[in-house]
Amino acid sequence: MSKLTVRSGKSELALKKSQSLVGLKTASEEPAEQKGFVETELHKNLGGFQIVTLKKDGEDIDAKLDEVRQDDDVEVGTHVYFAEGSNKPLVATGEIFITFAEGVSESEQRIVLDEYKLELVERRSPDRVIARVTPLSPNPLKVANALQQVSLVKLAEPDLDTLLDEYAFSIPADDMVGQEWHLQNSGSLPGVTYRIRAGADAKVVDAWKRLDGLGSERVVVALIDNGFDLNHPDLRTKVIRPFDIWNQSPNISMGDSRFTHGTPCASVAVAVANGRGMVGAAPNALFMPVSGTSFSNRATEQMFDYCVENGADIISCSWGTTDANFSLGSVKEEAIARAARNGRNGKGCVILFATGNDDLDFVNFYAAHPDVIAVGASTSQDAYASYSNRGREVSICAPSNGDWPILAARASWDEGLSWETGVFKFYRDGRDRGAQYKHFGGTSSSTPLVAGICALILSANPDLTAREVKEILQSTADKIGSPSEYTNGHSVKYGYGRVNADKAVAEAIRRRDKDKVTPTPAEVEEPVASGQGLFRFTVERQPSKGWGVQAGVYAEYGNVLIQAEKFQRQFSGYPVIVNINELGGKTVYKIILGAFDTVDEAKKLQEKVKAAGISSFPTDLSKLG
C-alpha cells in the first residue's frame, strides 16, 4: 500500500510512500553513513528516527527495508511519506492519539488496543488515550487508518513529525544584490574583474542580520528631489503620501528627461526586496516622494512642513548649492530647524543633506545647517572620494563612486550619459545590467544610503530623537584614511568616519534596552556618569492629593534630571513630579507623571506609558506628601 489517508488535526492527509527515504532507530551511536546499508543521512532526528537513503542495489524500497530490519543494530525501521503537494518528508513517531466513542468502557477499549497489538502509553480522560505500536503491530499509519473504521473509535490520529519552516532572516535574493558592494564588500563583484577593497562598505547586511530583518514597515523615508519613477518595480509598492511642489498636487510629474535624479536616490535608500533587481539599505521602509526642489523660501517651508505633517521620519536631500550668492537665509534655516525639532511628535525628523560634489573646502550651504546630517562620500577602496566637499560640518561619509560606482534604479525615461567614448551610457564597464538600472554615485548616492541606515536605526529604536540618531551615526563610524587627518575624532574629509550600519543599529538597540530597564519602587538605580549637563526648570509645590503614574525611583539626582527631561519630551502636556523621600536611610527620588483627580484618569495615562515600553503604576499622591 503506497498511498493512504490519515487524520491530522482538523483535516485529512493524503500520503504517498517515499521510494527512497526510510527512518531508522539504531542501538549504537555510530553515524548512520558508517553503516554498510546506508547511502546518505538526510536528517539526524525526525520523530526520533534517522532519515536516510538506502543502498538498494536494484531492490524496491519495501524489500530493502525488510532486509535492513534484520540487522542486529536496527531496532526499528519505518517508511517515510510525503503529503500530497509537499516535498517535506514525514514520519510517524509510533504513537496514536485515540478518542473512543462516548460510553465505550475501558474493557472494550482494551479489546481494541489488543486487536492491533498496541501498548497503552497514557490515559488523558475516560475516552481519550495515547497508544504506541509494538513490534507485533502493523505500520502506525495503517493502524490509525484501520482504527478510524472501527465503530468504537471516534478519532484515531497518528503522531507525525515533519520539517517546519525556520523564520530566520536571510539576505534578499534579488538578483543584483551581489553587485551592491556598498551593502557588503567582499573584494570582488560578479562578472567584474576590477578589484575593490573588502570591507569598504556600510555594513548594511550585518545590520540586517543584527535586526533579524530588513527594517520596520512603519518607518517613513521622505526624499525631496526631482524625477521619481513611481512605476519602477523597486519603488511602486511602497509609495506613501506623494506630493509635487511644482504642481501643488499628489500627482508626481514623470517622464521629463531633464529630471531623473530622484529615482536612483530613492532606490539606494528604500528599494524593496522583491526577489529581483536591487534592494535599498532599508527595503521595508515606506517611501514618501516630495517632488520639486526649489530655492524659494515659500517652497522650502512647504516641502519640509509637508514632510512633518504627513509623518516622515527621515528626510533625504541630495541637492543644494555652494554658490555664495545663494546662502541660506533665516526663513530656510527655520524651516529645516522646525522639521528637525518638531517632526515625529517632538522627537524630530532626521534630516540629511549631501555635502556636494564640487571638490571644495566648504560644504553645500544646506548641509551646513546644525540640525542636518551632512554626508560626504568614500569609495570602494575605503578612500576619500576626491569630488566630495570638505569642511568642519561634515558629519559622516558613506560609500559611493570615485572608484567603482553604485548600482541604482533608473527612471524609464532616463536617456543616460554619453561618457568619453559614448559607449558607457548607463554602466561604467559597458556591460548591460538591464533597462531598469544604472551606475550612480556622488554624494547624491551616499546621502540616501545613510538615510536608509537611519531607517534601520529607528527600526531598532523608534524612541530616539533626531539628535540622538546623528550622535549614534557619528560615534559608531569607522575611521578610514590616515589618523593624522582627524582632529578630536573629526576629519574635514570623512567627518567622524565611514558609516557603520551594524554598529549604529547595535548602539540603538543598547539605548533601547537601557531605557526599558525602569526600576521598580523597591529598587534604586545605580549612579550613571552622564548625570551632568545644563537643565532649565521651574519648581512649584505639588498638592498632596489625587493620583499620578509612578515611572521610576532614583538614588542620583543627575539621573532624575535626565529622566525628567526625557519624560517631558515623551509625554508633553503632563506634569513631571518628583517625590523626595527616604529609603533604607538614603535619599531617593520617585518620578511621577501627571496629577489627576481620579485613579481612572491615571490609568489612562499609564496605558500610554506602558505603550512606550516603560514600567509604571498608578500611585496615590496623598500618601507621598
CATH topology of the largest domain: Rossmann fold
CATH superfamily (homologous) name of the largest domain: Peptidase S8/S53 domain
Percent helix, as a range, is 10-25%
Strand-residue fraction? 15-25%
The gross shape turns out to be: globular
Radius of gyration: 33 Å
Number of helices: 12
- Spans with pLDDT under 50 lasting ≥5 residues? 419-423, 518-530
Q: Report mean pLDDT, rounded to a whole number.
A: 87
CATH architecture of the largest domain: 3-Layer(aba) Sandwich
Number of domains in the coordinates? 3
Number of separate strands: 22
Q: What's the N-to-C terminus distance?
A: 82 Å
Counting helices, strands and paired strands, the structural category is alpha/beta
CATH class of the largest domain: Alpha Beta
Biggest β-sheet strands, sense, barrel: 9 strands, antiparallel
For this entry, give a set of tags.
12 helices, 22 strands, 625 residues, 3 domains, Alpha-Beta Plaits, 9-stranded antiparallel β-sheet, 7-stranded parallel β-sheet, 25% strand, Rossmann fold
Quick structural summary:
Helices cover about 25% and strands about 25% of the residues. The chain is of the alpha/beta class and about 625 residues long. The longest helix has 18 residues, at about 445-460.
